[in-house]
Automatic annotation (TrEMBL):
Belongs to the YkuD family. The gene is ykuD. It is an enzyme of class 2 (transferase). It holds the Pfam family YkuD. It comes from the Bacteria. It comes from Legionella busanensis. Transmembrane segments: none annotated. InterPro entries: LD-transpeptidase (IPR050979), LD_TPept_cat_dom (IPR005490), Transpep_catalytic_dom (IPR038063). This is Putative ErfK/YbiS/YcfS/YnhG family protein.
Length: 361
């Protein structure tokens, strides 16, 4: 009996030691995973800020992150911070959001507002921004609810709405910070995303936010003082590249057309660029590429099938546009058009103007 008791005490002691060792190893492993994820987050933010989009910022070094990094490095742009080494800060670039109208005078602007930043603003090139933290906190305010609403399932009922807004605050915040709800839940384990309300704080990637409130139903002038640029789309690789002087200045992942209605190959011209567009929903057009008399005009909004921007080509019914399903970019099909996330298509719209050539192959 004594021997059995001693064996029990010894085994109990070893079990405690093994438990402590397991907890230590698991804690170390979890910390390493988190550090690795944060290095990828840093990489994704730096790429995103320089117009080399990884799609969504989620801490996964997937296909689009690798592609963005490849194009960024192959054209010898400003290198990422020592291959993602810590610590920060690092100076990155954000896209200028200033709109230039038909009356814009480049010579006058550069004369009155001298300096490097003035010229950058005139040409709508990226401006420096300091990245000191990978994450920040977003505080929900009362105005955010203005961009929420319900969306009926039936297209006929959607056409009767004034707008197609976000359905939840979680969706609103995810798109604002170029990510998805799953990643927000991962970095905010204590937050109940079904019960978000004003004054709640949510941890988000420290990326220049996509501001839905900054968009108005306007177009882009063909007289913008932009250098000559060209868009090249590869439907197989699902990539969109913006070139200037044979150099890539931007990369965006896309969803091209479907097998039934592929994106039209060839050279096209941008005919128009519209923010918060109405969308003519025509089943026959979406399936066969031919218009019918049976259609519905859907109102604008982030949950419009074409998102918040329509970049029309000189091919009837075909364009480059946003989406109401950012998580599907590069992973599904479209109806002859080219889809980007809403935050990416807004960035793209600031780099181009009507008349720009679009090559699809």
């Amino acid at each position: 009996m004594f021997i059995i008791k001693q064996l029990y005490l010894i085994m109990k002691k070893y079990i405690v030691y093994v438990g402590i060792l397991f907890c230590f190893c698991f804690s170390t492993y979890a910390k390493n995973i988190e550090n690795f994820r944060d290095k990828i987050i840093q990489q994704q933010i730096l790429l995103d800020e320089q117009n080399f989009s990884t799609g969504k910022i989620d801490g996964h070094r997937g296909k689009f992150t690798k592609q963005a990094l490849k194009y960024h490095e192959s054209f010898k742009l400003k290198p990422l911070y020592n291959e993602m080494d810590f610590p920060l800060p690092y100076t990155v670039y954000r896209q200028n959001q200033v709109l230039v109208n038909d009356n814009f005078n480049l010579e006058e602007a550069t004369t009155k507002r001298t300096g490097f930043n003035s010229i950058l603003q005139c040409y709508k090139l990226p401006q420096p921004r300091s990245l000191t933290e990978l994450y920040t906190f977003y505080t929900i305010n009362d105005d955010d609810k203005n961009y929420l609403g319900s969306i009926p399932e039936k297209i006929k009922k959607q056409a009767k709405k004034k707008a197609l807004p976000y359905e939840t605050l979680a969706e609103f915040i995810a798109e604002r910070f170029h990510t998805d709800i799953d990643f927000l839940k991962e970095i905010n384990p204590q937050v109940n995303f079904k019960k978000l309300k004003p004054a709640d704080k949510v941890k988000v990637p420290n990326v220049t936010p996509f501001l839905i409130e900054s968009l108005t139903q306007t177009g882009v002038s063909k007289h913008l003082p932009l250098p000559k640029r060209i868009i090249k789309i590869n439907t197989r690789k699902k990539t969109l590249l913006v070139f200037e002087n044979n150099k890539v200045i931007a990369f965006f992942p896309i969803t091209p057309g479907s097998q039934e209605l592929p994106a039209p190959k060839g050279k096209w011209k941008i005919k128009s660029i519209r923010y918060l567009p109405w969308f003519r929903y025509d089943k026959r057009m979406l399936k066969e590429g031919k218009q019918s008399n049976n259609y519905h005009n859907l109102p604008p909004g982030p949950n419009s099938p074409v998102g918040v921007v329509w970049i029309g080509l000189n091919k009837k019914g075909i364009g480059i546009h946003g989406t109401n399903e950012p998580e599907t970019i590069g992973r599904s099909t479209s109806h002859g058009c080219i889809r980007l996330t809403n935050w990416d298509v807004v960035k793209l719209s600031k780099l181009i103007k009507p008349g720009v050539t679009v090559e699809i192959n």
